[in-house]
């Protein structure tokens, strides 16, 4: 028996199998994205003012990329139109037209993904932020991986159980120092290791040996316990080792792998301890803006950030700009609403506490003033289009001591919940775009055979693929305003 | 099987045989698209996982019953070297790992695949008279995704970090911050749990789409909605539960994966400290969000676990009482209402998270409401037996035992539905006892019943009765031996996560209640909270529970033997319908070939026409030819549909 | 093959019109977000912005669903399916929020939080 209703619809349901199937699948997709939208609403409404990072305004995050988002919307809509027309072309049995339209749709998907890449790249590689101990935030760019801890190691203490220590990957394999085992399991002291591969084979061998020894010791211990020895000798096997390097070796440790460091030691997350000498753990930062949204208004003048920037002019500039912005904000919106909510007055979304700090010598230049005025008299527009100052405005280089930093990172998913959900949702949507485009591509590249055999079947497939594609478009229709504009 | 249809089979044999002959082994049994083979694959894989999950639990039970003795037999296994302590005792880490994985494996890799994947796949298309599932290749993909997810879960035991240890619920932020010190974050147990879950969820989603589509679109001629066997209805509702409830868990898994790998803080609150150090994340997330997303799935999941079992029992009881299913329509509506309500009761798992009174009231109300359709289902099954002349064969024994066992499980849930008793009972063994009464003697008995019931259709031979009895009676006794004491311990306040079986209670008792008239002892007495040493007196019940668990394992051996040897030495069935049942699955040849039916099946009447007055036999199968039944009602519509399709 | 001769020119016109409408609505969405005269209520994304923005998005979404996804030609089955999906989605979102912003507990929470500096005017 053949499976019925593969091409023709069933009378009482009015659907052929694939169409019913895809609608069911879309229902589950609604719940998938629905869950994420729920998470978005939950997290956004759940922001506790003054405790959590404030939820940024999409426009002020994306700046000139808002237009990229808008273009992407149009691109997806065009591709959606393309799919329905391709379906109609199949229904009218116009193969050529179908081909052209389908390739157009796939091209649209490619354009969409390219624009997305541009956007991601900017956020991941060019925008960083540093949150200081009193929650003031500096926005700008961390230079040349200076967020890493630079350290000259001389001695490594490792455990010979578990995985290979992460520090090995931070070592320069071309200039590998010669390690001598100074403490360790019996018979290993004095071993010399002069390359990463010899290190790892030594490690693996000892890990195995320790496993064997432990097993023997435990067996003895249990046997003694069972035979009634009053105080059996506890199991003791040396499982750690200390290696001394022939010459100091430089380490650029990623802060995510390191849990603590001092002038003479670095502790890795996996328990490895490095002894030696700290070269520097300061972060060199190209400062663009100072953001005081999380600092109490009365403590803003005493904020740590001014010690870090160490320039009275910048401080004056900040507060002058801040009070001007308040004034203009109240003037601009006061007419409309008698009561402006507290969070609005604090400039939650309009960046009243978010001020561009110019480099020395440019403190009160004409350009800056003009910029600020635009910023507040037409808050939305300027915020939307005013992102360009980061590329063009002069900035200052500052050195941020590590102990003043509470949190730092690029504007990637780690940076805050807005970024997290933005990246999660757009990436998931991007996967759907790629998947949908691949399926549609398959229908046009390998569709000819089926077209000649049963064009209606191919039309059904395109309709079903199209349904998915429209759904992807539909998700973006909601994602765009929620992520970019609101 | 009527003689007339048997003849048709014989005729049809000749032309259809070539279908099966040229398929190589790997295509026929490994990468098969035949729903029956996939059903069997699901069945065997899930039985293996069930055994594995049971093994984990037996080790845990040792630690609970005899916390200061070395685990017998296992201490010399290389894998256990790393996880047992020097004296060969279970460590807290090992207990946590096994506890988390026992839950995960039993629920997601054991029972759901066995109930939904195996029985659903094998029986549903047969019962609606379909040649296969609507999307056979999708069906195959669903099985392989499941196997891959299961393999990842299994492999995670052998990673340096071991498998997941944060409980089967994997609550954040514990699950987010566990094992973060391993260099390769991707290959840690916690991360692999999430990846494995994502695969299992995808598998279930594909399965659900396939099931619903099959049931809606592939019903044979005459199979109207109200002629579908109850089993099919339950599968339809289960399919919808999976389809709509699983995606939020997928969201939760993705978000937790992001938390672990990309450093986001979806579920990490501001100012989180881990082991005394400030956790390096932006903060601002909500651990509660995870619980909402998780329980939005995990509550409907309970019904995914139980509905197939109820459905199997609902097939077996009418067949063995030779009476129609009592209240078929009521049961159908009840199962739909149950499915709907299942989506809006989830937060009763979260009463102690500090939800407000208003929302607690809402969830208490819906939770109590959902017991109404459950009770309707069970009552209907019970009444179905009333006045019947019951054939107590092995499947019927299991089906009969299912009803009180599920009843106990359900009724002990009522105290948990209310916030106040839940404050006391939350996270105690009472919860464990309640849930396991529902799924272990409940669902698993239902599934055993199903295996014994459909075995003759699958293999052409009956399973042995003696071994069946040797399996059933001890299982019944020891199931209660395990979960009954848990209820008692739970009410005395035993916490579920104590890996040493509550030694701490002894300590407290020794220190605080040492003097009979001490301060705290007096307060306890005055307030009448609980007897001071109630928990201590319950500690010995641990041994009863653990002993029952190991004995239960022993008495599964007859079942395993029975399952394999009956294929070769079981009594051969003499007809395609050995139980004299009425549904379409018994109209197929034994075992059913690829494509199931040689001639197009037609359903002429309802699914449970047993002992119809005036009928020649005490059962009137759906497929027994009766042209007047077809054209006399709504099927005229479908009839014309056929003509158009043929045209 | 009878369907091949079905006249699709009318459909094509509808699809093109809907495509253009969607483009226009996209511009409206952007304008609502970026153009100050269209910013109602207090500054920043506030309730009115959300209502307007989501209303436009919903309109676009319904156009896509009804016309492009042929929902206007479908029978009840799909509608029932989508109705339940939507109900459960709404349940997930609303009940989750309800659990966190319980009206009774809210009073207690407000009491706790308003003691802090949050209420102070800058």
Q: Please, could you describe this protein's structure?
A:
The complex is a heterotrimer of chains A (486), B (647) and C (122). Chain A has 486 residues and is of the alpha+beta class. In chain A, the strands form 2 sheets. Chain A has a 7-stranded antiparallel beta sheet with strand order 5-4-6-3-9-8-7. The relative contact order of chain A is 0.16. In chain A, a hairpin with a 4-residue loop joins strand 8 and strand 9. Chain A has 15 helices and 13 strands. Chain A is 51% helix and 17% strand. Chain A has 3 domains: 184 residues, Up-down Bundle (Four Helix Bundle (Hemerythrin (Met), subunit A)), CATH 1.20.120.80; 133 residues, no CATH class; 125 residues, no CATH class. Chain B has 647 residues and is mainly alpha-helical. Chain B has a single domain, classed as Cytochrome c oxidase-like, subunit I domain (Cytochrome C Oxidase, Chain A), CATH 1.20.210. Chain B is built from 25 helices and 2 strands. The radius of gyration of chain B is 26 Å and the shape is globular. In chain B, 55% of the residues are buried. The N terminus and C terminus of chain B are likely disordered. Chain C is mainly alpha-helical and 122 residues long. In chain C, helix 1 packs antiparallel against helix 2. Chain C starts with 8 loop residues before the first helix and ends in a 9-residue tail after the last helix. Chains in contact: A-B, A-C, B-C.
